[in-house]
Amino acid sequence: MSRYYYYLVLVNMFANIITSVPVILFQNRKDGAIISMILAMIVGLICITFFTKFFNSFPGKTLPDMLKQTMPKWFTVIFTFVLVIVWFVAGLITLITYTILLIRFLTPETSLVMGTITILLFVTFGCFMKADKVLYTIEIIFIITMPLIIFIFVKAYLDEHIEWLYIKVAFTHINTFPQIIPFAAVLFLFLGVMNLIIFNQFFTVKQTFGWKQISALTLIGSGVLFTTYFIPVGFQGFENIDTMMYPWISTADSMRMRYGVIERVVFIFLLFYLAFSVISLLIHWHVTIELLKSVFNFNKLKVRGIQVIPFIIITIFSLITIIAVQFINELNLYFFTSYFFVSLLFLVPCLMLVLWIIKRRFKQHDKKES
Amino acid sequence: MIRKNPSLKKCQLILFFLALCFLSGCSFKEIEKSAFIAGIGIDPSENSERPYKVSLKIFNQTGTVKDNPEPSYIYVSEEGKSITDAIRLLETKVDKRLEFGHLKIILLGEDAIKELQITDMLDFLMRRPDIQLISWVMVGRPSAEKVLQMVPETETAAYPSLYNYFDLNANESPYIITTYLFEFRRQFLEKGVEPVIPIIEIEQGQFVVDKAIVIGENKTFLELDSLDTKIFNILLNRAVKADLIVEHEDELFMVELDRFNMDYQAVENADGTVTLKITFDAKGLITESKNPLDVENLPKFTEWTEAKATEDGKKFLSKLKEGGFDPIGFGLYYKGSKLHNELMDYDEWKKQYKNAKIEFNINLNLTGTGQLG
Amino acid sequence: MFNETITWLKQQLNNTNELTQKTLEIEDKLSFIYFISSLVDIEMIQKVLIKPFFEMPSEDYFEAYLQSLPQQLDFQTKEEILSNLLSGSVLVALKDKFIILNLSKSHVDQVQEINIEPTIHGSHYGLSESLITNINIIRNYYHQATLTVEKSTVGKLNNLEYALLYDKDKVKKDVLKKFKKRMKTIDKELILSSSQLISHINNRDKLTSYFPTILLTERPDRIIYNIAGGKIIVLMEGSTLAIVAPAVFFDFMVSMEDNYHSFWISNFLRALRYLGLLVCILLPGLYVAVTTYSPEILRVELALTISGSRVGVPYPPYIEVLFMLFFMELLVEASIRLPRAMSATATTVGGLILGTAATEANLTSNIMIIIISAVAISTFVIPINEMSFAIRTVRLALIIFASIFGLAGVVLAAIGFLMYLVNLNSYGEPYLRFYNYRKKKERGEALNE
After folding, report:
1. DSSP string covering C211-267
2. What is the DSSP letter of C363?
3. Distance CA C195, CA A6 (A)
4. A349 preceded by cis ω (within 30°)?
5. For residue A208, what pLDDT is reported?
6. What keywords sit in the KW lines (chain A) (predicted)?
7. Which residues of chain B are modeled with pLDDT < 70?
8. Are B332 and A166 within 8 A, CB to CB?
9. For residues A295 and A309, what is the distance between their CA atoms, to the nearest angstrom?
């Protein structure tokens, strides 16, 4: 596969491991977190295979294109709108989580609205870029931040203060029945591949996707999951980790670089993860915008030759975000995120069904032509 | 489309100016307007209405380090209903903004841990996002405030000398136990392991850091004297090097141990009793001796040293075991050794732990007798 | 027709009084020559024209001789005759026929010493102000039949000649087409130098093109390097700078010396340059963010040192930084404008005395002075001047965001800057992406072989 494909998948995995996903897992640490993780990983890999195989068989085509060709108009519009909402909310959650996090830990003096506007300013600029430019940006940021994030993970594993006994204790809860919310949360990590519904236009050449690629993703996926769940346990203990609001931030704060320029790892971690969540946000909102573009004709509404619709979209996005930021606190956010994850459990099968129908109709079409 | 949509540019321009407008409303503190706190001390007060007495040690920075090379601090203390309450009152005593970001020393008074709720203190320390989780927790004797206010003569500006004991850059004595705040929290809250924190005493204008205290459940405490502290450090592999005095008949020599490795297990026997197994490997070198030593007798010396180490270790372990203290984490080991639903319940475990058998295996490897024969 | 043309020419050049007419006459041979004396090489006229005229047996011989001269130029209209006369040609009227010979004299074909992009190794001489000489230099360095030179003129009034150079096999066809189209659309009366040409090439997106998407260079080795990389070069008459297009971000970070050093050293220097770039963009912003929002990121000693050195400074850090940056920029500008002998004085007065005095007077902290000097030095590490000009202004934006949103603001603004660069195009080539343009070309070639 093209390396850009991996960025799409990996960004979603890495960007979410420090936010609500581990919190949800720790809430359920005594009832089925581990089994949920394993199950979600298997299902997630199946999803990855399904989506990749599907879009690979239509190189360069986006989902809206295909919907237009095969589905009735009313269905296309409604379905696109559902997708728009899902992707917008996915981005919104990342944005709100991160704004709250930054203001809590880095700049307590800044107002929430101010922080949100600053992030919005850059993200709205970014998500109107073309797909290839978005991917180039992702690549550069990914390559700059990845080594440091990996370094912090490795440092965590080798730290003398990580206590593997806690991890062993966490393992002893393997024989509990899986739960739906942690399952959905972990599944979300693997759904980065769904961004192909728009980004497929970049992959105009048929790619190879076989066992090698799947096993690579399995390896990375399990590594990421293990890190997400067990590193904080190793640092913060097992019994009371659910009382922590930000287990990963605390874990990063528990590491010390004795000879580093910056002694406290947590700041490096926060800043580099900020870059990571910005690109995750960029991907999600780029997909949202492109989906909207497929429904509305941006050239239709013009005032003095200037397109008005992008203005309206940006304004709506910003307003929703700014209002949401003020109403949502950390507890709300937790429930909000959980509901979002669970709703994905309905959306993913629906999307798969639609894709299956599309594939069948294309086949019928081909048969008729031949 | 090569260039961007012109409408977007304008939109961003508007947003940008919007952001600029907020610049007027942005609030920040300047670095010289904040007072960096070096350490916090928590003591019980005599006033039962306001049980917490919080003392702060604040860097007094009136110029560059070059201008005033002597360490200079401001000390303030205040009583309050809670720690936060006391901090609020303290804020009125200092003209600058209190900045907890550089706080590294958390001193709990000896009476504080016995009389006040440790959970409350932990709650305060963990809840504030700006307190480092890698700050050091320690017990001050006779009180946190006294230890906090002590400035030994060796202290340099901008780096309190207590830091040197714990930051692993300066002092590597085997008598010093370093406990980070996050370690203290996890051990305090988790069943099956108990936190050990160092005790700081003052003696003739210098700190003495060679004892430690185990904080057990239900307000039980066990003080470790310097020998116990050293053994604990060696057992948990926290010390880099340690010495052992071996006496046998009229021979007396010192062994310097290094590269130790300890492996411990808690095994549940078929009859429900518990055996604690410890395997200890180390390398050693004889560094001092009363009588001349013969290298050929090295196996004999090894045997004596092993006997001595086993004796010390067993003594230490039984002391812990009989008091029901478990700073090493046998309970945790036990919890991780079986599936969670197959464990005996916790009270039962405590009982069994007190009566557990100890198996202490030691493998010493004396590599030589130093440069003298 | 013959006389008409002559009268017309005389009319056109009436005011100059410079049109010289000479009549050559002996026995039955008659010829007139016209030229503008200040433009032509008199010795050459004497050698090439006058001497043979008197030695030739007949007019026919002389005409055949003239037609065979390499300096002979073709022409169609009388306007062309005029413009050739104005560029230093000699018009020979012989038997009702015109022959034009280019016998121009140029004082500007000397090769100039390099002073904008100096290197330790590598050539110390750049281009000259004569187009012919420059093409000559490049042909001498690059012996390939595929090297194509297309000459044309630009500027309605002054008709300045320029040459488009590229390697036919390596250049991207669509880029070339786009570039030529852009050159044709330039609708200006006067074009004086290649730097001016650049601003007109970019004319259409004046507001958005903040970063240079075209490179100006005076080094022949850089020109060759870029031709080999499939780029288009524009050389102009009277200009020692060559235009290189399309240029992507990484092209501006290449120093020619990278190719002259051993592997590790050139990589070290490259890393140093990128580090310098980061420092000069990020450092002022980081200082503002750290001192106003998160001093806890620093080690205790450093936090206390900064805090101590800021005691008594009346302004918040972002004003302090802007203030010092302002003076630094003034200093840089001043030392460019001043004659070389005096610019050293300016730097001494500005840098040393002002810096020390500012800290003594407690207007800034001494940490600030260190930071500003580090920033100033690292700006000059960027090999191409235009890039360092652009970079210099970017950091101002970073300072603003740092004072709004602290460290997060710096990171966000840096990402925004990155997105801006990625979003730029230089003739269809993405301006910034991980694999750079030339490398991609090389890989493509390797595949073809």
Report:
1. S-SSEEE--HHHHHHHHHTT-EEEEETT-S-EEEES--HHHHT--GGGGTS-HHHHH
2. S
3. 43
4. no
5. 80
6. Germination, Membrane, Transmembrane, Transmembrane helix, Transport
7. 1-28, 63-65, 370-373
8. yes
9. 12
- As a whole number, mean pLDDT of residues C24-29 equals 81
Rounded to whole angstroms, the Cα distance separating B313 from B316 reads 5
**What gap in Å lies between CA C389 and CA A37, rounded to an integer?**
52
Topology (CATH) of B241-373: GMP Synthetase; Chain A, domain 3 (3.30.300)
Number of H helices, E strands in chain A: 15, 2
What are chain A's partners, defined as 3 or more CB pairs within 8 angstroms?
A: B, C
Identify the burial level of A180 via C-beta atoms within 10 angstroms of its C-beta, where 0-12 means exposed, 13-18 middle and 19 or more buried: middle
**For residue A279, what is the enclosing H or E element?**
helix A265-295
Let me know how many helices (H) and strands (E) chain B has, helices first: 11, 13
Cis peptide before B174 (omega within 30 of 0): no
The residue ranges of every structural domain in chain C are 2-102, 131-247, 262-430
The DSSP result for B322-364, as a single string, is: HHT--SS-HHHHHHHHS-GGGSPPHHHHHHHHHT-EEEEEEEE
Q: Do A220 and A13 form a contact (C-beta atoms < 8 A)?
A: yes
Query: Which of B20, B26, B130 has its CB closest to that of C296?
Result: B130
Domain tally for chain A? 1
Mutate to test the interface with A, among B177, B181, B340 (most CBs of A within 10 A): B340
- Contact in structure between C321 and B127 (CB atoms under 8 Å): no
Shortest distance, CA B221 to any CA of chain A (angstroms)? 22
Q: Go through chain C and tell me how many residues it has.
A: 449
C-alpha–C-alpha distance, residues A271 and A266, integer Å? 9
Helix axes A309-327, A112-127, angle to 10 degrees: 150
Q: Which two tokens stand for residue C295?
A: 């001093």
What pLDDT, on the 0 to 100 scale, is given for residue B3? 42
Give the other-Cβ count within 10 Å of B73's Cβ: 18
In tens, the pLDDT along C73-88 reads 777 777 788 888 887 7
Amino acid at B220: T
Backbone angles phi, psi at B140, to 5 degrees: -100, 135
C449 pLDDT tier (thresholds 50, 70, 90): very low
pLDDT surpasses 80 at A275: yes
Structure confidence at residue B1 (pLDDT): 34
Residue A174 tokens, joined: 């393997």
Chain B residues within 8 A of A114 when measuring between CB atoms = 22, 25-26
Determine the Cα–Cα distance for residues C309 and B66; give it in Å rounded to an integer: 10
Residues 6+ apart with CB under 8 A from B51: B44, B45, B79, B81, B115, B116
> Is the pLDDT reported for residue A24 higher than 70?
yes
In C293-365, which ranges are continuous DSSP H helix? Answer: 300-309, 317-337, 340-347, 355-360
Residues 6+ apart with CB under 8 A from A339: none
Q: What is the pLDDT of residue C207?
A: 56
Q: How far is CA A284 from CA A96, A195, B179, B184, in A?
A: 14, 7, 43, 41
What are all long-range contacts of B113-122, with beta carbons under 8 Å and residues at least 24 apart? B113/B139, B113/B213, B113/B215, B113/B221, B114/B219, B114/B221, B115/B44, B115/B51, B116/B42, B116/B44, B116/B51, B116/B52, B118/B188, B118/B215, B120/B82, B120/B83, B121/B42, B121/B83, B122/B184, B122/B185, B122/B188, B122/B189
Provide the domain limits for residue A33. Answer: 3-369
The verdict on a CB contact (< 8 Å) between B167 and A258 is yes
Q: Is ipTM > 0.85 here?
A: yes
Q: Chain B interface, mutation test: which of A248, A254, A269, most B Cβ atoms within 10 Å? A: A254
Task: Enter the DSSP assignment of B217.
Answer: G
- Report the residue count for chain B: 373
Q: Which of A102, A129, A132 sits opposite C408 (nearest CB)?
A: A102
Where do the domains of chain B lie?
32-224, 241-373
Amino acid at C377: I
